[in-house]
Amino acid sequence: MPKIRLRDRCPQPRPGENAMTRQGNRPDRRLAKPDLLDRDRREALAVALVYVGSAHHKRSPGDYKFTPPVNPRPSKCLCDGDRVVLKAEAREIFRKGILMGMFSADAGAGQPKYVWGVDDQGGVYEAKIGLGGYHGYRLEDVDDQCARVLKEWRQRCPRD
After folding, report:
1. Please, what is the angle between helix 39-48 and helix 87-99, to 10°?
2. Every domain of the chain and the residues it spans
3. Residue 16: predicted pLDDT
4. Of all helices (H) and strands (E), which one includes residue 117?
5. Contact between residue 137 and residue 79 where contact means Cβ atoms under 8 Å apart
6. How far apart are CA 34 and CA 15, in angstroms?
């Protein structure tokens, strides 16, 4: 029986591609159709879901008073990589994402795995369910999901 090497089992980045780019077609990262939940159900969802944040996605976790403060994981995207994003702003991006229906298609089952939002500067954020609530991080421009979310955000959330 031939020996299988780890690199044969794991997808390798294409030339010129960042090794941290997410791979493949992930059904759990698909945006829900705009009419999956009506306005009342989205408002109820915005009240029920909790954004808690994560020290692993902060450049300086101690500044956010996470207990205990930990060092960010080098493999994780930083939500404050470009600028400081305070918890109040992160919660508002999260809330607005829910109200605009910017969550994963599995929301019909009750709790979506992902919620997406865009800040006032056009930065795209992804929040993922974890222990005790959701934590978020900024999506990198090289992540295909970033472009998909931004395009859909502009359609669902026209500027005033």
Report:
1. 150
2. 30-156
3. 52
4. strand 114-118
5. yes
6. 36
Q: What is the mean pLDDT of residues 67-96?
A: 74
Q: What is the pLDDT of residue 72?
A: 57
What are the contacts of 22-29 at 24+ separation with CB within 8 A? 22/143, 22/144, 22/145, 27/105, 28/104, 28/106, 28/113, 28/114, 29/104, 29/114, 29/145
What's the burial of 99, exposed, middle or buried (CB within 10 Å: 0-12/13-18/19+)? middle
Q: Kindly calculate the radius of gyration of the chain based on its CA atoms and give it in whole angstroms.
A: 17
Place of tokens 């879901």: 49
Go through the chain and tell me how many residues it has.
Answer: 160
How many helices and strands (H and E) does the chain possess?
Answer: 4, 3
Calculate the average pLDDT of the chain.
77
Phi, psi angle pair for 126, to nearest 5° = -120, 130
Integer CA distances (angstroms), 143 to 48, 71, 139, 147, in order: 29, 24, 7, 8
